[in-house]
Amino acid sequence: MGMQTGAHIVWDWNGTLFHDNDAIIGATNAAFAELGLAPITLERYRALYCVPVPKFYERLMGRLPTDAEWAVMDATFQRHYSVHRSRCTLADGVTELLAQWRSAGRSQSILSMYGHDELVPLVKGFGIEAHFIRVDGRTGPSGGSKAEHMVRHLAQLELSGVEPARTVVIGDAADDAVAARHVGAGAVLYTGGSHSRASLEGAGVPVVDTLGEAVAVAERLAG
């Protein structure tokens, strides 16, 4: 898309553009069964889930998992998630929202904590990659915060003329707001993903129930 000016959205993927709640809870409970933990409901998951992810397991287990336990938990979850995700789709209205934002001459990108090598073909498979000037997934170990990944993502975007002050992150986790603040960007949090509204409202940024609302708020925040 070339050099960009004006408002920019950095989209989260899992739980935001990609409606994978069923895959998340299915993979979580499949992993829990292998590890001898009791299953949880989606409501309980959304109330307890947090980043870094080992803290989530601490809330469930009453203690932090050891490094060895975390490695097993993460690998087990990822194995089950790769099976469950095949039944998931984009969130309602995503294709239209992306096209409208792009047709207005604005830019957008994806930054996800999902593995980069898995993310890129998934985005391409939905036929939406042309809407983004950059798609970045996680590189390195999983389970951490998005903040440092956001620093690298924004540094690359600035080469295309994107300004942090006119950038808004749209995601479904409080960590998205933390990452946005870390680079001087705005944020809007969406209640349709992995976090409940109650767990998002303490982040100090707008919280909305639809992605259409999120885009409207982002437009105002980015000026």
Automatic annotation (TrEMBL):
Extract the InterPro entries matched here. Answer: HAD-like_hydrolase_sf, HAD-like_sf, HAD_sf, PGP-like_dom2
Upper classification of the source organism reads:
Bacteria, Bacillati, Actinomycetota, Actinomycetes, Kitasatosporales
Which GO MF terms does the UniProt record name? hydrolase activity
* Record keyword Hydrolase present: yes
Record key words, sorted: Hydrolase
Name of the protein in its database record? HAD family hydrolase
Q: Name one Pfam family in it.
A: Hydrolase
**Enzyme Commission code:** 3.-.-.-
In terms of PANTHER family, this protein maps to:
PHOSPHOGLYCOLATE PHOSPHATASE (PTHR43434)
